[in-house]
Design brief:
The structure holds 2 protein chains of 2 kinds. By secondary structure, chain A is mainly alpha-helical. Chain A contains 12 helices and no strands. Chain A has 2 domains: 169 residues, no CATH class; 54 residues, no CATH class. In chain A, helix 2 packs antiparallel against helix 8, helix 5 runs parallel beside helix 7 and helix 11 packs antiparallel against helix 12. Chain A is globular. The N and C termini of chain B lie far apart (47 Å). The chains are: A mainly alpha, B mainly alpha.
Chain lengths: 232, 99
């Protein structure tokens, strides 16, 4: 159990570092929208989601209604429902109802991807460990950005944004190298995502990710059904 | 509109979206097709998030391309996550110093 937790903490380190850098940007943005450092921190601690929070700050800055806030969050964050549903198939018996209620708040794009690409089932201790450093990085980065936007030399804070993506690459490239179907899934998702970004920017980031991932997985699932022993 | 109210709505909706399927769905899916789709899902999600956003992640196309190339090469040789992530940032930083 302790081993699972520590493995989680170690797997969470690159996510935490990446989150710190992205969160600094969020902190600066929130202060720019006249939100205090404390509230910026509170938003990060209670939401743990970059796209949703950025949209939330826009709603607050525009003086939007609470209905608008709720709908924006629902649409942008709906992908977490899909990820949570997918993760239920990987959970071991340690996930009691209280643990599910508590640990569901750990589901972010990055934590989901790392947890879902583990071999075999995952335990509640692993998931809690995996959440620790991303949470510290996300909330700490927000506070750092809000309190002192000049904390990091500009050259460094600019390039920190690439770390999260570097980590994603380190997950999907080795998997695609080993398996042709995974390579196809990665390629289809990338192409659809490019189309959304440059040709259909009106579709928001959250929806673009959902559609790209679901369409690609649906095609690959039909073309290359997995055998029992293929599953992690 | 009070800030606390905004934040409560934000956090509440975000929590429910995460919590409901994660907590309520208990059975193992029998359908081979659905299980296959879920098998490919994390890789497709990562790819959709990375491409093409990584090219806009440093605010400069050249440094982003160098960082991406370094990450892809190291990942191809199965280097650890943290090494790939740090090397991508370091190579982008060095490129920014040179250009």
């Amino acid at each position: 159990m302790k081993k699972d937790f520590l493995k989680g903490v170690s797997d969470g380190l690159p996510i935490g570092l990446g989150y710190f850098s992205v969160a600094v940007g969020f902190g600066i943005m929130a202060v720019g929208a006249n939100i205090s450092a404390f509230f910026a921190w509170l938003i990060s601690a209670s939401n743990m989601t970059s796209a949703g929070q950025a949209a939330g700050v826009e709603v607050i800055a525009a003086g939007g209604t609470l209905i608008e806030m709720a709908l924006t969050q629902l649409v942008i964050n709906l992908r977490y429902s899909l990820m949570g549903f997918s993760l239920t198939q990987k959970l071991d018996k340690s996930f009691s109802t209280p643990k599910r209620l508590l640990l569901s708040c750990c589901i972010t794009d990055e934590i989901y991807a790392v947890a879902a690409s583990q071999k075999g089932r995952i335990s509640a201790s692993y998931m809690a460990g995996l959440f620790l450093l991303p949470f510290v990085g996300w909330t700490g980065g927000t506070l750092a950005g809000a309190v002192a936007s000049q904390l990091l030399p500009e050259g460094i804070s600019d390039v920190m944004g690439i770390m999260l993506y570097g980590m994603f690459i380190a997950i999907f490239i080795p998997a695609a190298k080993k398996s042709r179907p995974v390579l196809l899934a990665v390629a289809i998702a990338a192409v659809i995502s490019i189309v959304f970004r440059y040709l259909l920017p009106v579709v928001g980031t959250g929806f673009a990710i959902i559609i790209s991932a679901v369409a690609s997985s649906a095609v690959c699932g039909a073309l290359f059904p997995v055998k029992e022993d293929d599953e992690r | 509109m009070s800030m606390i109210l905004y934040i409560a709505i934000m956090a509440g909706v975000t929590y429910l979206v995460r919590m409901i399927p994660f907590t309520l769905f208990r059975r193992q899916i029998k359908s081979r097709y659905i299980r296959s789709v879920l098998y490919y899902m994390p890789y497709a999600v990562l790819s959709a998030m990375t491409v093409p956003a990584i090219l806009h992640s440093t605010g400069n196309l050249t440094t982003a391309i160098v960082g991406t190339a370094v990450a892809v090469i190291l990942a191809f040789f199965n280097k650890p996550l943290i090494l790939v992530a740090l090397a991508a940032a370091a190579s982008a930083f060095i490129t920014a110093l040179i250009i």
